[in-house]
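pinging the channel bc i need a second pair of eyes. not urgent but kinda urgent?? the chain im working w is below, pasted from the shared doc
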Amino acid sequence: MEKMEIDYVGELPLANTEKIPWVSQRRAPVKTALYMIGLLTVLFSLTMLPPMAVSWWYGDQQTVEPFAKAMGAMLALGVLCWLPVCRFKVDLRNRDGFVVVVAFWVLLSLLGAIPFMLAEHPHMRLVDAVFETISGLTTTGATVLSDLDKLPRAIVYYRAQLNFLGGMGIVVLAVALLPMLGIGGMQLYKAETPGPMKDEKLTPRITETAKNLWFIYVGLNVICTLSFWWAGMSLFDAICHSFATLALGGFSTHDASIGYFNSPLIELVAGFFSLVAAINFALFFLAWRSRSLKVIFRDAEFQFCMVIMIGIIVMTCGYLYLSGKFPLWESSYHGFFQAASVITDNGLVTIGYPGDWPFEVPLLLLLGSFLGGCVGSTCGGIKAFRFLLLYKQSLRELRLLIRPTAQIAVKVGSRPIPDRVMQAVWGFYFLYVFSYCFLSLAVATTGVDLVTAFGSVGGCLNNMGVGLGETAVGFSPLNDTATWLLSVAMVIGRLEVFPLLLLFLPDFWK
């Protein structure tokens, strides 16, 4: 018997769409994209309300207007996209999911830049405003702004809110809401979430999966905020740094970042929650459901990731002490925080980093940022699970050299990994490294020195936000062409290469 293909229209499984009169046999991907982008844009416009409330709370009425105008523009655009196709019944498939996600990220980067351009302080150019917005939404933390301590509170909060929304992915939030409108979201979820095992769900319904992840994410933000507040931050700083830390976004409220507070306790809290945010959020859900942390500590990817991270942290602390940069205690907490922050692609920094630190330490941490953290976390980078699979595949190849006829499977724990996953991992690894080299050389051709080019692209592609050379303390020295290239690098890193490159593949549109 021929295998029956199941597709999803809304939440209804259909074996034969010909039986449903309103399902067109000729699909309308443009209508689907307009419908989805319109709804998502209307949803995103509501995120302008919190910054407006912050402006009102601190009595800064001048900053209300930029956010109000941005909200009006988003609402108008969203309605204009949605209204012509509002009667269209959405049939969201895999291809549409990738198109909508990429288009929405590009659109959000432009619309989210409006407050930065309309505000009197800072009054940013388009290229800088888009770069800052993309950096926030992709949780990169690279910034072209200076004098953060003098910026209006609403602008500072807005930057942190961009980190918060990008942390778990604003599209994943939409997945939790769209079924209320009768629209299935599995295709958006697969295009947005990081990692090679995208078809696994915590619950039978993708909506419940997205909701559970967001509940965990918000709950951890509350705990992190209270921890920062207890450690000595003001409530405003605690909220903003919590958004930056759990999202691994790196946007601070001060030019000196975490170093502004000069507090060992705050650095320890920030380092701890950076490591927490690098853990697969699905493990938190399973631990909560089973009422035991054993599920986390038994996870093979978690064990592999923590071994590497602890090794790099120990090396960082040891080198800082042996080089004479800091005494033992300062080397310990500075090294712990900074290593945890950079490896997990958080990007918050402490006193003197990276300019005044021995060059070997920032270079080590930049290389460590390619690891990122676990699949299903808010970090960037290649992810520990992929490195674990590549490591096991390397061992498999060595054993096959000894016993060529042996049947040796790549396993994580007791679970064999399908060849399709291994092929995807190798393909991703090649495209990721190729993108890094290509973008680094492209930035270098704009007149940037090689250290700055490779360091800046590494910081942006890994969504880590801290560069080397001229961008060690900020990305404002770069020319416009380099800034646009780094904006592209941040989106490629956040969407993990495939969704963006698929749009340039002719077969994708056939």
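so Residues 1-27 have pLDDT under 50 and may be disordered. and The beta strands are 7-9, 12-14, 411-412, 415-416. — does that match what u expected or am i reading it wrong
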